[in-house]
Amino acid sequence: MSSWIPSDPSYLPDVLRDVLEEDASLASLLIGIRRHLHRNPEVGMKEHATSRFIRQTLTAYGLNVRGPIAGTGLFVDIGPKDPTRPMVAYRADIDALPTQDQKDAPYRSQRQGVAHLCGHDAHTTMGIGVALMLRRREDDLPGRVRVFFQPNEEGLPSGAPLMIDGGVLDGVGAVYAVHVDPHLSVGRYGLIAGAATSSSDRFDVYVRQDGSGHSARPHEGVDTVWVAHQLMNAYYQLAGRVTDTRNPSVLTVCRQGGSEAHNVIPECASFGGTLRTTQPDDRATLRDHMHSLATLWETQSGAEIELDFEDGSPPVMNDAMLIEHAADTITDLFGPQAVYRIPQNSMGGEDFAHYLKHVPGAFLRVGTASGPQTEYPLHHQRFDLDESALRPTAELMQSILVRHLERDLTKNRAPTQAPQARTA
Question: What is the model's pLDDT at position 413?
């Protein structure tokens, strides 16, 4: 069946009706979906139009859309209603970034200061593609598949815990997701077992004194800027000194605040950034030492020091068996050259990790580069992707999900991960 005309066109958004009038193929439909989402991005927890568009599209193809959960989240269940059958899930994130789209493309963002520069429009499109493909073979599925669309992957508090609280994992035995990767060429898929990403926590430090001071007489009070910088330097030296150097971790300061005058020592100096680790123990160790150092400098300097953390996501821990299952499916569909074994984990954060604290899962990288215009890194203001990756990836993920059910890969077993890779 090459035509993808919906069963109830009355629900189909007008922009997609226009697309299908020209070309009723799935590839064309998915490109039309992605371009509409790219033109109309919405930031986390405000994805109201995005959620409505997803609902309308899936409903047009005969799917029963459930939700909202977590504010703007949605999901569909596909397959037999028998609750004794296994169920596997697929997650797509739907939010955009609060930044400006600067590329020259007819589908560039039409909303000032908001853009899909992390590929979530593609993730949503692929998720819709997975759901539509599964709908066509629903009567033959050996179990159930839940495809869900999650808000606010980028923000804190992120959408994954809210989706979990809303019951999206109820009955689910395993969960899969993808992320576009402009460092991989179209047709290649990146896989790594164990830690695929790091944890990502935000921190802020405030160094205060009672009133401001004069730059000519810093000894008469507390030089809050000096204390802040001493503490900052101490923080930078922690990784690899109180943690095992073979376990990646990184602390980066990205924000500083103080006086706007050249000769006034501010009443409050501040700085903030992120702390990222691949090992839960290192995450706790580094945070404990940061608090200890803040207390030490508070005692030595006489300043009042406040250290606040905003908890981000834990590391994404890919299940080794499910990664090999994905590798086998990729090889069967596209050949062994399509599998790229990622040598080291990313230090980026990804809230898909929250789901993996409850069920085993796998997070795949999808190659989307085919030339200079599609090789800009994630979050770059000219980020774009080769849309020819959309349909094959949707086909791959629905195959991974169906084969997972056929093999019932997660029956009666706990999550397993490969040992943490060591760096040279």
Answer: 67
Q: pLDDT, tens digit, for every residue of 162-196?
A: 999 999 999 999 999 999 999 999 999 999 999 99
**Are the CB atoms for 35 and 122 separated by under 8 Å?**
no
- 201-208 and 189-191: which strand pairing? unpaired
pLDDT, residue 409, reads 82
Residue 19 buriedness (CB in 10 A; 0-12 / 13-18 / 19+): buried
Mean pLDDT computed over 314-322 = 97
Q: Which of 162, 123, 180 is nearest to 348 (CA)?
A: 180
CB atoms within 10 A of CB 62: 14
Rg of the Cα atoms in the chain: 24
CB neighbour burial string for 232-262, b if at least 16 within 10 angstroms, e if fewer: bebbeebbeeebeeebbbebebeeeebbeee
Burial per residue of 81-94, b for 16 or more beta-carbon CB atoms within 10 angstroms, e otherwise: eeeeebbbbbbbbb
pLDDT of 421 above 90: no
Contact status, residue 265 vs residue 212, Cβ threshold 8 Å: yes
* Closest C-alpha to 365, from 384, 350, 381, 382: 350
What pairing do the DSSP bridges indicate for beta strands 339-341 and 73-78?
unpaired
The strand pairing partners of 207, in sequence order, are: 269, 305
Q: Name the nearest CA neighbour of 25 among 8, 1, 58, 3.
A: 3
pLDDT by residue (tens digit) across 98-155? 999 999 999 999 999 999 999 999 999 999 999 999 999 999 999 999 999 999 999 9
Specify the 3-state DSSP secondary structure of 349: coil
Above 70 in pLDDT, residue 417? no
Distance, in Å, from the CA atom of 272 to the CA atom of 234, rounded to the nearest integer, reads 14
> Which residues, including other chains, have CB under 8 Å from residue 398's CB and lie 6 or more apart?
129, 130, 133, 134, 145
- Residue 299: how many other CB atoms lie within 10 Å: 10
| CB-count exposure of residue 200 (10 Å: 0-12, 13-18, 19+) | buried
